[in-house]
């Protein structure tokens, strides 16, 4: 696979530092779980499924290093620290719940066995994410069949997952099936996941793209230049409301106004039936410096306040379909999301 955001290598967790892309391709080696937690918090690795994989690998790494004498106490600490990294993407908590299940089931077999099973489970989560993305990509390619100019927001690609991507998985699958496509990549202020990361990934695979600023989306749609929108997701509530990167909501409103179908692509691990609606999804608030500064350079007068919610919620009414590895969820979402998860 061309792009690897994260891998388990020689007993360590290795990540591509996404803060430095596209200028530099630097790999960071995490030798203990605290380094993994810091990498998630500081956006070395980001994207909902990728941070789920990172948390799982962090737990496996922590278990390897935890002392036999204080093993159970150390494990609790590891779960606690990783659980405090980023609040919005449910994949992090989903992956941690899977790891905890293994820990509880295998604890009686002794510390060595637990370490082995936790590592195996983390690698399984990694592999399963890649196949889920390939599968949802195929479903998405069928849904978007006739579209050739596709707009995406943020980065929901190989960098944001174990590989292949969700929204970009759909785009990759369209290309693989021989379709001629062109992708509008909005830059995604303030962290620029679109212009830095999505453009980098698409260029690597020679998928035609054009970068635009976020505030050009309305103009593009008005000019009839967008056939469909496809984005990833950080958490899908039981009624189909979707939390995704800040600015997604604006794109969805514009899409409705211009009758452009708005699709969400994500694995079922992004669905949280414990959230009845988007109102219950916790929205991460990040440091205002990500807005007032750009890589250390001031963009606003010194001392001004900046507000930096990292995600917003797109109400289900604005979504044409949600594409997962199990198939396609169509409205009415308040009924169909639960049915989809159950089957
Ligand atoms: O803050 P980020 O970069 O982690 O936000 C990422 C997104 O919002 C993605 O669209 C989402 O996680 C889906 S990734 C397949």
Task: Name the features.
Four Helix Bundle (Hemerythrin (Met), subunit A); Rossmann fold; seven-stranded mixed β-sheet; single chain; 17% strand; 2 domains; 11 helices; 16 strands; alpha/beta
Report on this model:
The protein is of the alpha/beta class and 343 residues long. 41% of the residues lie in helices and 17% in strands. It has eleven helices and 16 strands. Strand 8 (235-237) and strand 9 (242-245) form a beta hairpin. Helix 1 (33-41) runs antiparallel to helix 2 (48-65), helix 2 (48-65) runs antiparallel to helix 3 (71-83) and helix 2 packs antiparallel against helix 5 (111-143). It is globular, with a radius of gyration of 20 Å. The model has no long low-confidence stretch (mean pLDDT 97). The structure holds 5-S-methyl-1-O-phosphono-5-thio-D-ribulose. Residues 46-49, 89, 154, 156, 160-161, 166, 193, 232-234, 244-245, 310 line the site of 5-S-methyl-1-O-phosphono-5-thio-D-ribulose (MRU).
How would you sum up this structure in a few lines?
Helix content is 41%, strand content 17%. With 343 residues, the protein is α/β, with parallel strands linked by helices.
> In sequence order, what are the helices and strands, one letter per element?
EEEHHHHHEHEHEHEEEHEEHEEEEEH
Bound molecules: 5-S-methyl-1-O-phosphono-5-thio-D-ribulose
CATH architecture of the largest domain: 3-Layer(aba) Sandwich
How many alpha or pi helices?
Answer: 11
CATH overall fold name of the largest domain = Rossmann fold
In percent, how much strand structure appears in the residues? 15-25%
Largest sheet: 7 strands, mixed
What does the average pLDDT come to? 97
Overall helicity: 40-55%
Low-confidence residue ranges: none
Question: What is the fourth-level CATH superfamily of the largest domain?
Answer: Translation initiation factor eif-2b, domain 2
Q: How many separate structural domains?
A: 2
Structural class computed from helices and strand pairing: alpha/beta
The geometry reads as globular
Walk across the major sheet and give the strand order.
Answer: 6-5-4-7-10-15-16
- How far is the N terminus from the C terminus? 30 Å
- The radius of gyration over CA amounts to 20 Å
**How many distinct beta strands?**
16
What is the CATH class of the largest domain? Alpha Beta
